[in-house]
Amino acid sequence: MIFVPNKLFYVKGVGVHKDKLGSFELALRDAGIQSCNLVNVSSICPPKCKILSKDEGLKLLRPGQITFCVMARNETNEPNRLVSAAIGLAVPKDEENYGYLSEHHAFGEKAEKAGEYAEDLAATMLATTLGVEFDPNTAWEEREQIYKASGHIFKTTHICQSAEGNKDGLWTSVVAAAVFIIENNEVKGPKEATNGKTNEKTA
């Protein structure tokens, strides 16, 4: 079967632990997706994909579920070092077209800057796909207006989690993710459309 997500929602979280993996697990718990088997995928937001609130999305997950997501993560064990992880989204005005999700992780960037950078990445990828002309050297705020004024891009947004490294040197992890939901929209392949039967002739 071919699976195409028709819903997505955003989560973010932070965790602190003496072990790197332990801090990542706690960050997933803070985000609310620790009980899923997470599969990282790349940067496409499917056409007509509905954006849910975090509470709405979490209600659709089940423990042990194979869950596709676009995730950004970062970690440090350096005291007071600033870490951030961000996801950006750009959605086209034409619902028949796909959008872009981007992930960004950084050191020394506050949440607002990291989030805007991720949003910029997603919007720029979508703009180049749609043939929107722009100067890549201009500031994000100016290009954002150009993108939206083009009439091709409907919405851009981001989510970001930042944190300072634990003062005692424990591992500090941050995660941000766009989590996909696939509900009753499986596309059947050629064999499945005929219940697995083929047109082969027997001798």
Name its key features.
single chain; 203 residues; alpha+beta; Pyruvoyl-Dependent Histidine Decarboxylase, Chain B; 23% helix
Tell me what the structure shows:
The model is unreliable at 189-203 (pLDDT under 50). The longest helix has 20 residues, at 111-130. The protein has a 5-stranded mixed sheet. With 203 residues, the chain is α+β, with helices and mostly antiparallel strands. The protein contains 4 helices and 9 strands; from the N terminus they run βαβββαβββααββ. The chain starts with 6 loop residues before the first strand and ends in a 22-residue tail after the last strand. The chain has a single domain, classed as Pyruvoyl-Dependent Histidine Decarboxylase, subunit B (Pyruvoyl-Dependent Histidine Decarboxylase, Chain B). The protein is flat.
